[in-house]
Amino acid sequence: MDKALQELLDKKAIEEVLLRYARTLDWIDAESHRTVYWPDADIDYGFFRGKAEDFVDVVIEVERGTQRRWHGGAGTQITIHSETKASAETYGLTASIADRNGEGPKGSLIGGRYLDEFEKRDGEWRISKRAYLLEWRTAFDDGCQEMLDSGFTLNMLEGADSKHPLYRKM
Question: Which residues in the chain belong to E strands, given as ranges?
């Protein structure tokens, strides 16, 4: 296969891993979240330093502590180093709503970067090393209740998880 075409296919496969990372956290799907990392991947988020096989349960429990959550990535730069090694840097935005201290739901918006190393094993790309860098955080009031009180309603996924009737494996 043409080298340039293979590089595009590899980059697309890596992008799919990064999209799966965000989606499986938002839907609290631990089983699918495990497919983002190799079990022996080195993970460093500051609050957790260790192997991916242990990290998944920790991060899923953190996400369960929120009522609503949204993870997004942008500006991903991917470098393919060889047939089996790549690296990526992705800007990350995370928004969540939680009642952390009994004062009602409050929002949090966090910006940071994911610094990832990828390995391709048996034809599959996954994260083999990740460091997360927090760059900023801001808090805000949960405006959804105000919308609901005004009579303008939208579908809302309170506490969504992989057992939700609208969740689909992708």
Answer: 37-44, 49-51, 68-80, 85-98, 106-121, 124-141
Q: How far apart are CA 18 and CA 92, in angstroms?
A: 10
Closest CA to 117 of 95, 88, 141: 88
What is the spatial distance between Cα 62 and Cα 88, in angstroms, rounded to a whole number?
24
pLDDT tens, residue by residue, 42-79: 999 999 999 999 999 999 999 999 988 999 999 999 99
**Strand ranges across the sheet with 85-98:** 49-51, 37-44, 124-141, 106-121, 85-98, 68-80
